[in-house]
Amino acid sequence: MSPALRLLPMGAEHLAAVMAIERRAYEFPWSEANFRDSLHTGYSSWVLLDGEVLQGYALMSMAVGEAQILNICVSPAHRRQGLARQLLDHLLLLARAAQMERMYLEVRPSNAGALKLYAAYGFDLVGRRRHYYRTVDGTEDALVLARDIGDIGDINRPQPALGSAAGDSG
């Protein structure tokens, strides 16, 4: 991570900047209430700052040996700089430190960049949630991906791309 970049626990003071990114990044963003509930519940919630500029954030729940990535987002203006990888690395390290055994997430089949990132981290397709995400024209399925946390040393090991079982992943 660049010396100027800092990962900090997300707090209420970050919500205005988080919401600004959320609204730029998604047609159907999380509400501020979703973020407040996540903070109140005690989910692992992090912001990535460059100086005082919030560039991304990540939220994860952990319980009964399983970690669930709830949201990873990088500001559209700061994408393709490895920031999502830094956030994902951090979540994996935290999950491993908390002795979680498996990590799950949902992703849109149309989100090719995220699918490529998760495949590189060894996430595999384990299910599909029909009509999970809203779209302008209706709904889109969610692909449910998972990986064993396993040996922390394998977090950044290149993995084969998600196969055709991912359906319309591209």
Task: Describe the model.
It is a single chain. The chain is an alpha+beta fold and 170 residues long. It has a single domain, classed as Aminopeptidase (3-Layer(aba) Sandwich), CATH 3.40.630.30. Helices cover 26% and strands 36% of the residues. Strands 1-2-3-4-5-7-6 form a seven-stranded mixed β-sheet, with helices on both faces. A hairpin with a 2-residue loop joins strand 3 and strand 4 (66-74). The longest helix is centred in the middle third of the chain and has 15 residues, at 83-97. The radius of gyration is 15 Å and the shape is globular. The relative contact order is 0.14. Residues 157-170 have low confidence and may be disordered.
